[in-house]
Design a protein that fits this description.
six-stranded parallel sheet; about 45% helix; 2 domains; globular; alpha/beta; Rossmann fold; two-stranded antiparallel sheet
Length: about 240
């Protein structure tokens, strides 16, 4: 574990965990790469007569393809959102559960903390994964991509603001911890004034998360699970 603060220092004040879907819960594109999904999305949009900007063809990130399509107008944006949702739902069949994710979710529940999924992935894909892996009972709610507006996706804090506002009256962002593996998760969390725990699913992510100033960084979700069990919520 690395970062600016220790997990016990963070978790004593935390009553609500906001987990990104892709990374902390599963690798949605484990069976088919994100780059392959981006290529499929590009082909679908081109077949629909949508002339994508030239730079779009260089990105391996399907979410960036969606962002680029959105610059072409509302119809192109919604078509990209719908096509990407379809591809994400199909990818769930070969998604790989993140080691320790289920235990972390159960530990949060057992220690009196809630778990909310806050993600740029589509709600449909997240629900399909949770149904297949028998974990919905431990998830309070889901805030995922429901429309074609890129301004609603991280690094914008829109979804995190929604998640905080959906909690009981009086809960502050400082009582919430975002757990994510990307710099956009860190940025969105800090903009929302929440605490951020970076999950380094690969060694190369540690420096990126540190540079983004995640409050804590771990390469093993079991560290968070142990800290949850050992750190009571401060009254």
């Amino acid at each position: 574990m690395t970062g600016r603060r220790s997990l016990p220092q963070i978790l004593g004040a935390i009553r609500h965990l906001f987990l990104e879907f892709d990374g902390p819960i599963c690798s949605i594109f484990a069976g088919v790469s994100a780059h392959a999904i981006a290529d499929q999305l590009r082909r679908r949009l081109l077949s629909a007569g949508i002339d994508l900007p030239g730079d779009t063809f260089a990105t391996p990130d399907p979410l960036e393809v969606l962002r680029d399509a959105a610059t072409l107008g509302r119809d192109a944006a919604w078509r990209a959102h719908a096509e990407l949702t379809d591809l994400e739902v199909a990818a769930v069949a070969t998604a790989r559960p993140t080691p320790g994710a289920a235990e972390l979710i159960k530990a949060a529940d057992r220690t009196g903390r809630t778990v909310t999924i806050v993600s740029n992935n589509s709600v449909e894909a997240i629900l399909a994964y949770l149904d297949a892996h028998d974990t919905p009972a431990h998830i309070r709610t889901i805030y995922g991509r429901e429309d074609a507006d890129p301004a609603h996706m991280k690094p914008h804090p829109y979804q995190i603001h929604r998640a905080v506002s959906g909690l009981p009256y009086g809960v502050s962002p400082g009582q919430c911890a975002v757990i994510g593996e990307s710099t956009s998760d860190v940025t969105a969390g800090h903009l929302a004034r929440a605490v951020v725990i970076g999950y380094a699913s690969e060694p190369s992510k540690i420096d990126l998360l540190r540079a983004a100033e995640a409050d804590a960084i771990t390469a093993d979700l079991a560290e968070i699970t142990i800290a949850l069990h050992n750190t009571p919520i401060a009254e």
